[in-house]
Amino acid sequence: MAYMNILPDPLHKIKDTGVQDDTNGAAGPGFASVKFSSNQPVLTDRTRSGRVVQRSIQGQTWKINITYNPLTRAEFEPINSFLMAMQSNLQAFYVYLPQYLYSQNGPNLTANTFAYEQRTTGSAFIRSQGVIPAGSTYMAVSYPGTLAPKPGDIFNIVDTDNSNHVKTYMVTRWETTSDHDTSIGAVTSGAERIHFNPPLVYSVANNMKLEFHKPKVRVINTKAAQEYSLNTDNLFKFGLNLEEALP
Questions:
Q1: Largest Cα–Cα distance of the chain, in whole Å?
Q2: What radius of gyration, in Å, describes the C-alpha atoms of the chain?
Q3: If you ran DSSP here, which 8-state letter would residue 116 be given?
Q4: Do residues 206 and 128 touch, judged by C-beta distance below 8 A?
Q5: pLDDT, average across residues 180-193
Q6: d(CA 71, CA 68)
Q7: Which residues have CB under 8 Å from 227's CB, separation 6+?
Q8: Does position 113 have pLDDT exceeding 70, yes or no?
Q9: N- to C-terminal Cα distance for the chain?
Q10: pLDDT at residue number 189
Q11: Given a cut of 60, is residue 59 above it in pLDDT?
């Protein structure tokens, strides 16, 4: 029995035993608002002649601030007890963001829409093509459908060679065989080219799956103190400050 490591929400429910049960478990409340930010520090120097020199000084990190509407105790306890089980910020967990559950081209999971994300076998998924070194910001991918993900979508790489590769990436450009930047080479037939940020934290082998359907972010709670307030209507006021945490 594996204990749930996903922040409870309306789609990811938790039982009293601590395991995930999306049918019979207790649902976590939906978010009132989400603030999603990219922290990518760059050191900037300016010479006496006015020339600007810039360099990256730290890896990119996603930050997530979540607020909830006032909660009843039944709504509050699934997330409160889950976070207590994480021992403040000692243990990392995953969070799903409602605005990124589906690609912009595939919110409707029908047989003909975003179908490659429903299949579990074969080459129907979007997969990496060739070996892509760490630090890359683009890669060739196979593309079996007609509704490609769009810039602004986020994704995970299901890296069967590296279980620590849980970084979350965002699409910045999507190139096709007929519409691409020729300065970095042609896009071969049967493939397309995806650009993304941040750069790859690990190299990626050939034929690794890119997960655009319900991607998740691995996070820790940045506050050591877990607290809430209770108003005169016996409603709980609560929020979370989360930061991406890689293993």
A1: 67
A2: 20
A3: G
A4: yes
A5: 83
A6: 7
A7: none
A8: no
A9: 22
A10: 76
A11: yes
Q: Which residues contact 245 (CB under 8 A, 6 or more apart)?
A: 92, 218, 219, 220
Closest by CA position to 217, among listed 76, 57, 88, 98: 98
Residues 6+ apart with CB under 8 A from 173: 138, 151, 194, 195
* Domains of the chain with bracketed CATH: 13-96+217-244 (3.30.200.190), 99-215 (2.40.30.290)
Give Cα 87 distance to the centre of its chain. 23
The fraction of the chain above a pLDDT of 90, given in percent, is 62
Cβ-based burial of 226 (10 A; exposed 0-12, middle 13-18, buried ≥19):
middle
Alpha-carbon span 135 to 156, nearest angstrom: 16
Q: For residue 97, which phi and psi values (nearest 5 degrees)?
A: -100, 125
DSSP, collapsed to helix, strand or coil, labels residue 48 as coil
State the pTM of this model: 0.88
